[in-house]
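Pilot study result, target chain (335 residues):
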Amino acid sequence: MALGTAFTLLTASCISCSPFNVEETSSNMQILEPEPAENLIRVGFSQLGSESKWRRANSISIKDALTVDNGFFLQFNNARQTQENQIKAIRGFISQQVDYIAFCPVTEDGWDTVLREAKDADIPVIIVDRQVSADSSLYTTWIGENMRQEGENAGIWLSKKLEELGKSHDKINIIELLGTRGSSSQIGRSIGFDTVCDKHQNWVLLDRDDGDFTTAKGQEIMSGFLEKYDDIDVVVCQNDDMAIGAVQAMQDAGIDLYSDEKPIIISFDASRQGLEMVMQGIIDVDVECNPASGPQLSEVIHEMEQGNQVAKAYFMNEEVFTRDNASRFVDDRSY
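Predicted structure:
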């Protein structure tokens, strides 16, 4: 697949950035009515948080795309990882009668009521990155990544790698560090990887636990796995931040990360640091989750402004990185 561009959206606290016509609020502050933005498209955007390098890159991409030069007045809210804050922000956008609402949902469930409120107010809603379980008639379109395909890509790569190593029929013990439980990224990657795993009777899922997409939690969970199991063959981390934490835990446990005897490490996101670790041979494969949805969001809104019908879903282009190709992309990484 072709490599996509990167998202942009910054988080701040209730500061008006007049050069960019951006109103930014944090989750614990009331959303204030911004100064009038004549002839600009007013967009209210709720970002779920800033839990990872990927998320920060996603925020930057959104903000870079929805600029005054592109015809936008952006109100950005950081929800600090809670659905309650996102719902509060969306209701604030509705009360201000913005032209469009977009948000990255922290979880899949629990959005029906507020989405119906936006629909009743005739405000189009665009879901970005993760998906929601709500009735699709309650939002206009979704822009994001094919999380299930990412999980399948990781499983397919592992199958080929084991064949290459002559271990296709060996018992393979696998542990997984999951992302935020209930998020579409966690659900999709788990389903995708499990789809491939179920085809291999010799693959044994020893354990899986929530690492919440953070380095600290990833290190904590991996340390527990290493104390519990002494025969781990494969470590699947559902993002680079957790992989970095898992690697630290392995180092602390005395595992030689440059040895052929180390566990195979699979990660997702393909951040700069992740790709550097792929080039070093520490992470064996990094499945890209492209954060650059800002340009696509801008394009979709402009299409709607012209009265054109838009698709119900837009998938980002994504790549699979190993030592063979990571060096060609690492220098262009903004996150």
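One observation from the pilot: The chain has two domains: 15-145+291-318, 147-289. A full batch analysis is planned for the follow-on phase.
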